[in-house]
Each structure stands twice: as structure tokens, then as C-alpha cells.
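Exercise 7b. C-alpha cells:
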């Protein structure tokens, strides 16, 4: 299955290594042959350039929508309150 390029929407893509994430599981990088650009599965999304696992962000935001305080969310996820607030703003 080919991942389309976010820049040119071309389907001529090739796997081009991995990048580290905080979860320890690397992210697959791709190379678009049509536009000669590198990208990953998060490129062009609101999670672009984040190393934080998306599951952490989703859980934290769900806790916030269920009226759990920022401090309580930080205790569950073991991250700083500033991170939780930043995730909510994005």
C-alpha cells in the first residue's frame, strides 16, 4: 500500500527510514518521488513535529472533555501541565 504525499498528492512514494518517537516505537518516513520531499504519517496534521505518542494526547484530551482537571490529567499521563494545556490548544 502506497502512502500518498501530503504535498503533491502523488502515489509514487518509497519508504525512507525511520525517526524516533518518545514512545520508543519509531515512525516510518517516506520519500515522494514526484516532488522529491520526505514526510511521515503525521506530516500535514496537527500532530506534525511532535514526538509524543498520539495515544497519550488522545487520552489526555478525553480526560479534559470529561471535566477532569489539568493536574489530574498530568498525574495519569506523567507529563507537565503545560503539555496538557498545549495539546488542548492545538
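Sequence design result:
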Amino acid at each position: 500500500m502506497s502512502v500518498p504525499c501530503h504535498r503533491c498528492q502523488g502515489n509514487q512514494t518509497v519508504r525512507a527510514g525511520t525517526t524516533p518517537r518518545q514512545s520508543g516505537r519509531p515512525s516510518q518516513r517516506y520519500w515522494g518521488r514526484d516532488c522529491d520531499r520526505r514526510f511521515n504519517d503525521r506530516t500535514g496534521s496537527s500532530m506534525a513535529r511532535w514526538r509524543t505518542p498520539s495515544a497519550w494526547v488522545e487520552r489526555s484530551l478525553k480526560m479534559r472533555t470529561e471535566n477532569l482537571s489539568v493536574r489530574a490529567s498530568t498525574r495519569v499521563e506523567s507529563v507537565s501541565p503545560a503539555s496538557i494545556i498545549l495539546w488542548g490548544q492545538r
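Instructor comment: The mean pLDDT is 79. DSSP finds three helices and three strands in the chain.
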